[in-house]
Write a structure and sequence with these properties.
Elements (H helix, E strand, L loop, with lengths): L1 E9 L3 H10 L3 E8 L2 E9 L3 H10 L3 E4 L6 E6 L10 H10 L4 E6 L13 H8 L3 E5 L4 H5 L12 E4 L14 E3 L12 H26 L7 H11 L12 E4 L2 E4 L3 H9 L2 E2 L2 E2 H4 E5 L6 E5 L7
């Protein structure tokens, strides 16, 4: 079992923490270097966490648990219009990243009004490529109820946010609802806003843990973080990708930010231990920029 952590420290001697992670058999999931500051999202065996903390103390850095590391989350807004997308949706996205999540902002094409809001088949498939979806909705109870059709048929866990207090029974298809996060025309910096964001983190973390437990009953043959590492080691074109996290970990697979038509054959031939990736995963074209989506098959698929 691996523990996912976030290391924050300086650039000076940062290669020492990278070498320790590698020596312990761990993985760097994401690396962000901003001027003289370094933030690493990493996974190491649980028994080796004290060694990481000891090295971080030596380097004057800090380590904290990242409960959402290795996951990809969709933050969905009814539209890209300024009265829906900014402020609360962006702050939700930024706050979840602090806990290790890789999230993507998605604005639906037709959601400007409760009477005409829709979700297309392609939008639904794009959202379902993620581990979990957070629907950032508005400030009126009836308006939120009228938008239930946007998420009620999704096959992944769904968290809905809005301003009013609501009963989850009024939101069929949602796994959780977090209040006090409606359409707010300012940054979420006040005390009540931070408390609502912390509640959202707890709710999302619990749903991801539940999904992990369900996967343990029928896990893939190879963990996704190992597949991520092998793709980075065997596909040289990955080093030329400038998008953040060119190979993004998910609970049951990875998203490879290379063009499907150009690179899917190389991805299929990747060797992970004694397996060929094409034999243990479903590899298809993503709805996001024609990237490559790798979904690992559970053990039961081979018996």
């Amino acid at each position: 079992m691996y523990e996912t952590l976030t290391y924050s420290g300086g650039v000076y001697r940062h290669e020492e923490i990278n070498e320790l992670i590698e020596d312990l058999g761990g993985f760097v999931l994401q690396e962000n270097m901003l001027q003289m500051d370094l933030v690493l999202t990493l996974a190491v065996p649980i028994e080796d966490v004290p060694k990481i903390k000891e090295k971080a103390k030596e380097l004057r850095g800090t380590v904290k648990v990242a409960p959402m590391a290795g996951t990809e989350i969709a933050i969905v807004s009814p539209t890209l219009a300024r009265h829906h997308l900014p402020h609360s949706a962006c702050d939700i996205s930024e706050y979840l990243r602090r806990y290790g999540a890789k999230d993507n902002m998605i604005g639906l094409a037709r959601g400007a009004g409760k009477g005409i809001s829709q979700i297309s088949v392609d939008e639904k498939k794009l959202i379902e490529e993620h581990d979990l979806a957070v629907f950032a909705l508005g400030s009126f109870q009836q308006c939120i109820k009228d938008k239930v059709h946007l998420f009620k048929d999704l096959d992944i866990p769904v968290v809905v946010t809005g301003a009013p207090q609501m009963d989850l029974d009024d939101l069929p298809g949602a796994d959780a609802y977090v209040s006090n996060l409606g359409r707010i025309p300012r940054r979420l910096k006040r005390g009540e806003d931070i408390r609502a964001l912390k509640e959202l983190v707890d709710v999302v973390s619990d749903l991801l843990d539940q999904k992990r437990r369900e996967m343990l009953e029928d896990p893939p043959l190879i963990p996704s973080i190992l597949v991520k590492s092998e793709i980075e080691n065997q596909i040289s074109a990955i080093s030329e990708v400038y998008s953040p996290t060119p190979v993004t970990s998910q609970l049951d697979g990875v998203r490879v930010k290379l063009n499907y038509d150009d690179f899917h054959e190389q991805i299929r031939k990747i060797k992970v231990y004694r397996y060929v990736l094409n034999d243990i995963a479903d590899i298809k074209k993503s709805k996001m920029y024609d990237y490559i989506l790798v979904k690992l098959l559970p053990e039961s698929s081979f018996f």
